[in-house]
Amino acid sequence: MSSRGLRIVSWPLERFDEIWPIIEEVAEGEDTYALPAKLTRDEAIKLWSEPGRRIYAALSGEEICGTYYMRPNQPGPGDHVANAGFMVPLRSRGAGVARLMGEHALAEAKRLGYHSLQFNFVVSTNTPAIRLWRSLGFEVVGTLPNAFRHRQLGFVDAYVMYREL
Amino acid sequence: MSSRGLRIVSWPLERFDEIWPIIEEVAEGEDTYALPAKLTRDEAIKLWSEPGRRIYAALSGEEICGTYYMRPNQPGPGDHVANAGFMVPLRSRGAGVARLMGEHALAEAKRLGYHSLQFNFVVSTNTPAIRLWRSLGFEVVGTLPNAFRHRQLGFVDAYVMYREL
Predict the structure, then answer these.
(1) Is the whole-model pTM more than 0.80?
(2) Are the Cβ atoms of B121 and A78 closer than 8 angstroms?
(3) Which of A84, A114, B72, B148 is a plausible cystine mate for A70, CB 3.0–4.6 Å?
(4) B112 to chain A, closest Cα gap in Å
């Protein structure tokens, strides 16, 4: 998939070090992800290499301008629902990277046989993400009260968002 | 904590093999938990030994009649919300084991400094569990459409349930 010079590719775990700076930056932000601010590379590799997790990267030429993962949201009798998480570094925001990755994830989840795609923890103050997911057909199916400690805003809700495929 | 001859104790991971038959039985049921029906002991140990997960057991004399775990529901800025999962084998049902464990979990989560307790995946057809959690002050804050493949009933919803501490 490509748009305005961007393309999405499947990303091998062996090349984790090239996406790690993006993950590190997003974790340090403490404003969109429930990841430790001081996430170490080893902790991240452990998370990103769990069985069933696939990794993708958004490329502009050879530059990595975003990454996302997809995995079964639950094991066993819940593994027909996909979960995904999207990360775009500050320097690449506003260029449609997240939208392209979201569209790619929907197509990919369908191709892999999932019935739906669910985001478990969309921070309620992350307005650009919520607007984007709504525009791609996701709806809020749950509100987790005060579930996220935002670095600037303190305790804020998180949403569960869902779309059938 | 004890009631009608039952007591709840903290359970060391080294004694995992004594609670494993309960976990195995619940997974095989494919009617309440998003765990693989053919969950192996090794897979279960890996799950139950994740960092931050605590294990408890309900005892009647020396007999184990239930087990539950508690852990941070999310890492980093989400780790003030506790998650717990409760398992009672068929032979011990109807004796108030789940209620006692639920009450214990609420007290324990508070003692450990959590702000709230959240269940991520309560199968909507698991009426006894839903009735119990409601009676302990939990409410449904999310409905995950068709998120669980029930062995007998096919695709059914799962609930996210939540209680402030």
Answers:
(1) yes
(2) yes
(3) A84
(4) 17
